[in-house]
């Protein structure tokens, strides 16, 4: 792309984890999509504890689905208000059998799979607490390795 080519965006990827910070990132993604007449693809990335619990049968799949859908309903209202098309998906952010599967990797793989032109993700503070959100550490990875423009909010 050179200066004579206009910047275009057809698909904005917004990886989320259900946190307030990721809801804010969706608001930014919707604003970018609105500016470029694009679609927002929201990817809900399930955390390590949820994935392990689902695999072990200690976390109720129906509860996870209900919570995830509740978050999707909230952000759908943001997209509807801007008249921006919204696509949603859910993926495991971690794997007990593949060391290379983590939220940053899942984000970039999804960006490639859906041919995303732009990524918006939360850049939450890295904490030492066990309850830290899923995407806290993914932002650094995505910023370092994404081939698309990235807005970290």
How would you explain this protein's 3D organization?
The structure is a single chain. With 153 residues, the protein is of the alpha/beta class. It has a single domain (9-150), classed as Rossmann fold (3-Layer(aba) Sandwich). 44% of the residues lie in helices and 18% in strands. The chain is built from 5 helices and 5 strands. The chain has helices at residues 20-36, 48-56, 61-82, 103-113, 138-145, and strands at 11-16, 39-46, 86-92, 118-121, 150-152. It has a 5-stranded parallel sheet with strand order 3-2-1-4-5, with helices on both faces. The longest helix is centred in the middle third of the chain and has 22 residues, at 61-82.
Descriptive keywords:
globular, 153 residues, UspA, UspA domain-containing protein, Rossmann fold, five-stranded parallel beta sheet, 5 strands, Universal_stress_UspA, 18% strand, alpha/beta
In short:
The protein is about 45% helix and about 20% strand. The chain is of the alpha/beta class. Strands 3-2-1-4-5 form a five-stranded parallel beta sheet, with helices on both faces.
What is the element layout, followed by pairings?
Elements: E1 11-16, H1 20-36, E2 39-46, H2 48-56, H3 61-82, E3 86-92, H4 103-113, E4 118-121, H5 138-145, E5 150-152
Parallel strand pairs: 1-2, 1-4, 2-3, 4-5
Helix pairs in contact: 1-3, 4-5
Shape: globular
Kindly estimate the percentage of residues that lie in beta strands according to DSSP. 15-25%
The secondary structure category is: alpha/beta
Number of E-state strands: 5
List SSEs in N-to-C order: EHEHHEHEHE
* Estimated radius of gyration: 15 Å
Domain count: the total is 1
- Determine the N-to-C terminus distance: 25 Å
Count of helix runs: 5
InterPro entries: Rossmann-like_a/b/a_fold, Universal_stress_UspA, UspA
Protein name: UspA domain-containing protein
Pfam family, one: Usp
Domain UspA: 10-152
């Amino acid at each position: 792309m050179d200066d004579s080519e206009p910047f275009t965006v057809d698909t904005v990827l917004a990886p989320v984890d259900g946190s307030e910070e990721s809801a804010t990132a969706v608001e930014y993604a919707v604003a970018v999509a609105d500016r470029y007449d694009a679609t927002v693809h929201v990817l809900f990335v399930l955390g390590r504890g949820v994935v392990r619990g689902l695999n072990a049968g200690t976390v109720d799949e129906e509860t996870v689905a209900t919570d995830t859908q509740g978050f999707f309903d909230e952000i759908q209202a943001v997209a509807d208000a801007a008249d921006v098309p919204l696509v949603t998906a859910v993926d495991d952010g971690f794997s007990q059998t593949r060391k290379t599967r983590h939220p940053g990797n899942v984000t970039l793989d999804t960006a490639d799979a859906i041919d995303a032109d732009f990524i918006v993700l939360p850049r939450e503070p890295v904490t030492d607490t066990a309850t830290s959100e899923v995407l806290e550490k993914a932002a650094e990875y995505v910023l370092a390795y994404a081939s698309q423009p990235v807005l970290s909010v």
